Amino acid sequence: MLGVVVVLIILALVQVKFNFLYSKNTVRLGLIGTYQTHDLPLEVTTLISEGLVKVESDGRIKPNLVTGWEVNNDATNFKFKLKDGLKWIDNTEVKAGDLSFNIPNIDISFPDDKTIEFHLKEAYSPLPSLLTKPILKKGTLLGTGPYQITKVEKSRIFITKLSLESPDPKLPKIYIRFYPSEKIAVTGFNLGEVEALLGFSNSKLFLNTSQISIKQKTDFNKIVTILFQTKDSILSNRSLRQALSYQTPKISGEEGADNPYPPKLWAYDPDSKKYLSNPDEAKAALERAKSQMPEEKLKSELLLTATPNLEEVGKTVVGSWKSLGFDAKLRVESGIPQNFQALLITQSIPSDPDQYFLWHGTQTKTNLTKYDSKRADKDLEDGRKIITEEERREKYFDFQKTLLEDAPATFLYFPKYNIVYLKKVEENLNKLLPLLQFPN
User: Fold this and answer.
1) For FRET with 332, which of 182, 227, 360, 428 sits at 20 to 30 Å CA-CA?
2) What would the mean pLDDT of 49-61 be, rounded to a whole number?
3) Does residue 126 have a cis bond before it (omega within 30 degrees)?
């Protein structure tokens, strides 16, 4: 009897590892992070619904589930009209009153079943860019398709597993498992718990075997940046920050960033100041700093703090700073430290050029550099009040010029979004990637 039990256990473990009972019309996905039902990640919500609007590659906002919108002259009132014939996946009609929006300091009304009005206390022209998130029927997890969540498993308040099915028989069933960390997720993939792992940061964690493949795309919604603490006794000097920015190398194999904006964004200024891998300009900026600062300050320790997934990048940066004569050191720390001199971090950036929360002097919780420029503040304030694209572009061009000259940060690159998967599920995975807005 004991022998039978042992054999069954071994068979179960082998099945988990190699999945001999693989079903051709299912795919098991792994996602990293802890989520509740009210804050599902985009990898899930894009499978079950769509946004009222969508973002083009150049950052422009276009209608999606709405026919369009009207806005008053001072950008405080927006009116959106739903398209005719919209259905939830349960085949009931989509009505304006079904929708719920979690946008603070905005009053929302529904004059009729097709109309949604947003009433703002202050002008905010980028409001449509806040409506890209896939919509759900109020109080449910129902969207406009093509998938429906059929089962939710939790551990306390956090979701551990999801099951999704589609009315379209051509689309596979999806089983999603959530992992609290990248390390645990990699272990789960290697054990055969999932057949594809989405959104991990380091593609070097996986061996290049004949059974495994990796897809990548550049994620222009995030940017890897070195933030300088502008109130620091050393880094308060602009010439010194410029010297560090010029000395910082381009990172091989990555989509370089020379600006807080992606190069395809309609507000990106191609003629803006360029840093990275420019040792001659670095030496010139350092000479300016020497004329402005006591010599002992320049000999002080310069500490770069990096998140764990950016440790190797941090080593490269610190090495380049040392070659310029700085006593640079690297510290690896999880999360965002309360106090830092220089911080290497991946930040999310909005699809709209409005980066008020990242750089405006009043934003003490999110402006981590404590950057304070009256000129940049005015550009950011005006940019979110003006309606016309041409006038907004003028403001953001000036903002880029001011920010880059002041150098409160060094913009390194736009990181990659990685998917590792077993080749046997590639056909099913390719059916899902367009829904995830991931190119084949």
Assistant:
1) 360
2) 95
3) no
- Measured CA angle at 296 (ends 291, 300), to 5 deg: 115
Which has the closest alpha carbon to 75: 113, 30, 125? Answer: 125
Question: Which H helix or E strand runs over 377?
Answer: helix 374-383
Residue 9: enclosing H or E segment and its boundaries?
A: helix 2-18
**Residue 99: both structure tokens together:** 């929708």
Mean model confidence pLDDT for the chain: 92
Q: What is the mean pLDDT of residues 118-128?
A: 96
Average pLDDT for residues 77-99, to the nearest whole number? 97
For residues 43 and 199, the answer to whether their CB atoms sit within 8 Å is yes
Residue 81, burial from CB neighbour count under 10 angstroms (0-12, 13-18, 19+): middle
Amino acid letter, 345 = I
What 8-state DSSP symbol labels residue 93? B
Tell me the average pLDDT across 224-232: 97
Q: What angle do helix axes 374-383 and 389-406 make, rounded to 10 degrees?
A: 160
Q: What is the pLDDT of residue 23?
A: 59
**CA dist list (Å): 316 to 225, 306, 322:** 14, 12, 10
Distance separating alpha carbons of residues 293 and 298, to the nearest angstrom: 7
Best CA proximity match to 197, nearest among 33, 40, 39, 48? 33
On whether the CB atoms of residues 164 and 428 are closer than 8 A, the answer is no
pLDDT in tens, 67-78: 999 999 999 999
Average pLDDT over residues 38-46: 94
Question: Which ranges of 174-310 does DSSP label H, i.e. alpha helix?
Answer: 182-190, 238-247, 279-290, 295-298
Residue where the block lists tokens 């449509």: 128
Contacts of 195 (CB under 8 A, 6+ apart): 19, 27, 28, 29, 421, 422, 424, 425
Q: What percent of the chain has pLDDT over 70?
A: 93
Question: pLDDT tier at 11 (50, 70, 90 boundaries)?
Answer: very low
Contact 223, 346 (CB under 8 A): yes
